[in-house]
Structure formats: C-alpha cells, structure tokens
Design a protein that fits this description.
With 150 residues, this protein is mainly alpha-helical. It has one domain. The chain has a two-stranded antiparallel sheet with strand order 1-2. The longest helix has 28 residues. The radius of gyration is 16 Å and the shape is globular.
C-alpha cells in the first residue's frame, strides 16, 4: 500500500512541469530565469517523460521475456524516435503537442495490453490512466495557447 501511494505521489509530482507550462503560457510568460524559454523546457520535459514511459515498457517486456511482446519493444522504440525527431525538427506548436499527446495515448494502450496479459497490476494501470488523462488535458491547454499567440 505504501508503495502504491509513493508511486501515485511521484506520478502526480511529475505533472507539475506540465501544469506550470500550461499556466505560464496562459499568463503570456515566455521566459523564466535559469530554465529559459518555457516551450523548450516543456517540450524537453515531455520528451523525457515519454522516453521514461517507453523505457518502462522495455524493462517490463525484457523482465518477462515473452517473445510475443517484441511488438511492445518495436512500438515503444518507434514512439521515442518519433518524439525525438519531432523535438529536433518541428517548431514549437500544435503539431509538436499533438505528437506528444498521440505518443502518450499509444503508450497507455500498450499498458492496457500489458494489463490484459497480467503483466502490470490494475492499480498501476488506474494511476497511469488518471495521470496520463490529466497530462493530456494540460497539453491540450498548452496547445490551445499556440493558436492565440503566434
């Protein structure tokens, strides 16, 4: 029980940068001391979290060593490469935010697949679903601000 609470608190804390990014954009604040441009900080953070989630799929799959789960390895790798290329080549804007959102949804669908195969717990999936939904809402708010500012 303590482990689940800790996981939930850490996952919730991980949403703080997304909330800050959305709030700062709504407040028309582009730069913050030390961190620099909020879009660079926010996009980089989003890419790091997506890499972390994709890596957790790798860890789970390799730990379980199911040869039928090679698709999980391929899809999570493809997602991370897509996010990385997008981060490097696509200017800040709705397209970049859309790639982040789609990536998070696909990673959540992989978690659903792992849940159905009894490779992750219902508690873990429930927390992932709640946190991912909240992050997607924050990214939508962030994305909406692009259309109003540039």
């Amino acid at each position: 029980m303590i482990r689940v609470r800790l996981y939930f608190l850490l996952a919730l804390a991980g949403t703080i940068p997304y909330a800050a990014w959305a709030l700062l954009r709504l407040m028309d604040i582009d730069l913050i001391p030390v961190l620099g441009h909020i879009d660079l900080a926010g996009s980089t953070y989003a890419a790091l979290i997506i890499a972390f989630l994709a890596g957790s799929h790798w860890g789970n799959t390799l730990h379980r060593s199911h040869s039928s789960d090679n698709r999980v390895l391929l899809i999570s790798n493809l997602i991370m490469l897509t996010v990385w290329i997008t981060l490097l080549t696509v200017p800040f804007g709705v397209l970049q935010i859309s790639v982040f959102i789609i990536s998070l949804i696909v990673l959540l669908l992989i978690d659903l697949h792992l849940l159905r195969k009894h490779q992750i717990s219902e508690g873990y999936y429930s927390i992932r679903l709640m946190i991912t939904s909240f992050v997607i809402m924050l990214l939508l708010i962030t994305g909406v601000t692009y259309g109003t500012r540039y």
